[in-house]
Amino acid sequence: MSFFVYQFNKNFEERSVMMLETTINVVLSCISHNMEHDEKNIQIVLERHVVSEHIKNMRIFDLSGKILYATDTSEIGEDISFIAPHHTAERDIKSITLIEPDTIYSAITPFKNEEKCQRCHEQKDTIAYLDIDSRLTKPEVQFYTGIRHSIFLGIVVILILIITLYLIFNSFISKPLKGVIDALSEVEKGNLHIRRPQKKEDEFGLLDRHFNNMVNQLEKSQQEINSFHFEQLQRADKLVTLGELAAEMAHEINNPAGVIMARADYIQLESENMVGLQKYGDDIEVILQQTQKIARITNNILKYSKKLPKDFHKIDVMKIINESIKIFEPRLIRRNILLKKIFLCDDKCKSALIYGDAQQIEQVTTNLINNAIDAIDNSGNLEISVGCTNNEKVQIIIKDDGMGIDEVSKEKIFLPFFTSKSAQKGTGLGLYIVKNILKNHGGDIECESAFGEGTTFTILFNKAK
After folding, report:
1. Residues 6+ away with beta carbon under 8 Å from 342
2. How far apart are CA 352 and CA 433, in angstroms?
3. Could you give the angle at the alpha carbon of 363 between the alpha carbons of 361 and 364, nearest 5°?
4. 82, 85, 181, 207: most buried, per Cβ within 10 A?
C-alpha cells in the first residue's frame, strides 16, 4: 500500500515539475522573442501566461532582489526577500520546490546574458531571475487530501488494533498471570490453603494444575514437619522432666551416701585404736572411695540439671573441660575408651581464659564429649586438646576415632531436630544449642569428618584480656 502511495506521489511531483518547466520555457521563449523584435512590454507577456488557473504568481526581479515585473502589479518595486522569502537562497541555478506542503510548487530560474543580449546588458552573466508559483491541480489536491485521510485512517486502525490487542492480552495473559502471582504471594505469606481454579485447558490451565499440586505438596510437608516438631517437643519435655527427676534422685542418693561416708570415716578412725578392726582397713578405704565417687557423680548431675542465670566473667576452659569429663568417667571406663588430654598453652599463655558463662560453656563441652562417646563402639580413643593461637584465640579440639559423619549429614548437623542417632538417644537439638551458645559468646565451631574415619570438632573463642 505504501509503495503505491509513494509511486502516485512521485508521479504527481514529476508531472508538476514538468508543467512548471514547460511554463518557464514558454515564458523565456516569449520574452526572448519580444526582446529580439524590440518589443519590451514584458509585463504583457507575464499577464498572458497567468490566465491559467494553475499559475498563481509570476515575477521577474533583478540581481539586487527588486521586483521589475509581476502578475500582481502591487508587488512591482518591492524586495523579493519580503514578498517571497523562499527565494533568498541559491538563485543561479534552476530549482523547483514545494514551498507550501501539498499547496504550491515554486520555480526560479536565472535569465542568462546571452550574446544577443549583451549589447544592452553589457557583460553580466545573469540579467535577472524569473519566479513562478504554481497551484496544485484538482487531482493533485484530491490525492494529497486522500493521503492525509489515509494516514488518519491508518492511525485510527492502529489505535483500534492496539486497544484490541491490549484487551486480548489483558484477558488471556495478563489477568491469569496476575492471578498466579497473587496466589504465589499468598503462599509466600504462609497461606497454604489457597488454590487456583482449573477452568482452562491451555498453558495457564496447566500452570494452575502444577501450582495446586505444588501447594498440596507444601501443605503435606508442613503438616509432617509440624507433626515431627510436636513429637520432638514432647520428647524434649520428657527429657526436661527426666532431668528434674534425675536431680531429685541424685539429691535423695546424696543423703544416704553422706551417712555411709560419715559412718565409714568414723569406723576408719576407730580402727586405728581397735586391733580387731585394723584388718578391715582396706575394705573401709574402698567403701570411702566409692562413696566419694557416688557423691561426685550425684553432685555433677545436680550441677548439670540446674538452670543457672547467664553470668559472663573470666573462666578457665581447662577447668570446665575437667569438670565435664568427670560426668562421663563411668561411661568412658565401661566403653573402654582411652581419654587423652593435651594442654598446648606455653608459659606466656599461663591459662586458657575466655569471657563467658561457665555453665553454658560446660554445656557445649558436655554435648560434644557425649557425642564423641556415642560415636565410638565399645573401644576407641578420645582426644581433647586446649591451646592458645597466635591471633589471640583460645582453641578447643575434641577428636574421636568413631564412625564419623557422611558428607550429606555433615551439612545438616547444626540444624534443629536433625540427628543421626536412634530416637531413644538423640533429639537433634544438641549441636543446634552448641552453635547458638558459641554464637552468643562470639565463638565459632567447625567440623571435620569422614564416614568411618572419626570426627574432629574445633572451637575458637576470643581470649579474655
Report:
1. 383, 384, 385, 386, 387
2. 23
3. 65
4. 207
Phi, psi torsion values for 60, nearest 5 degrees: -125, 125
Query: Nearest-5° angle of CA 298, CA 303, CA 304?
Result: 100
What whole-number distance in Å separates Cα of residue 407 and Cα of residue 329? 31
**147: exposed, middle or buried (C-beta count within 10 Å: 0-12, 13-18, 19+)?**
middle
Q: What own/partner pairs with CB < 8 Å and gap ≥ 24 does 416-420 have?
A: 417/228, 417/229, 417/232
Is residue 398 within 8 A of residue 427, CB to CB? The reply is: no
Q: Which three cell numbers stand for residue 187?
A: 503462599
Amino acid at the residue 130: L
Copy the grid coordinates of residue 15: 508531472
433 vs 415: CA distance, rounded Å: 9
Rounded CA separation 371/368 (Å): 5
pLDDT tens digits in sequence order for the chain, 465 residues long:
555 556 656 666 666 667 667 777 777 677 766 666 555 677 777 777 655 666 777 888 888 888 888 888 888 888 887 877 766 555 566 666 666 554 667 777 787 776 666 666 665 677 788 887 777 666 666 766 777 787 888 899 999 999 999 888 888 888 888 888 888 888 888 888 888 887 777 877 888 888 888 888 888 888 888 887 777 777 776 766 776 777 777 777 777 877 787 877 778 777 777 777 777 777 778 888 888 777 767 766 666 565 555 678 888 888 888 888 888 888 888 888 899 988 876 555 556 888 888 888 988 998 899 889 888 888 899 999 998 877 788 999 999 998 888 888 888 888 877 777 665 555 667 788 888 888 888 899 999 988 888 999 999 998 887
- Alpha-carbon distance of 288 to 263, in angstroms, equals 9
DSSP 208-256: HHHHHHHHHHHHHHHHHHHHHHHHHHHHHHHHHHHHHHHHHHHHHHHHH
Residues 6 or more apart whose Cβ sits within 8 Å of residue 47: 71
* Structural contact between residues 306 and 345, judged by C-beta atoms closer than 8 angstroms: no
CA 62/CA 87 separation, integer angstroms: 12
Output the pTM of the full model: 0.43
Q: Give alpha helix (H) positions in 335-423.
A: 358-375, 407-410
137 DSSP assignment: P
| 267 neighbors 276 (Cβ within 8 angstroms) | no
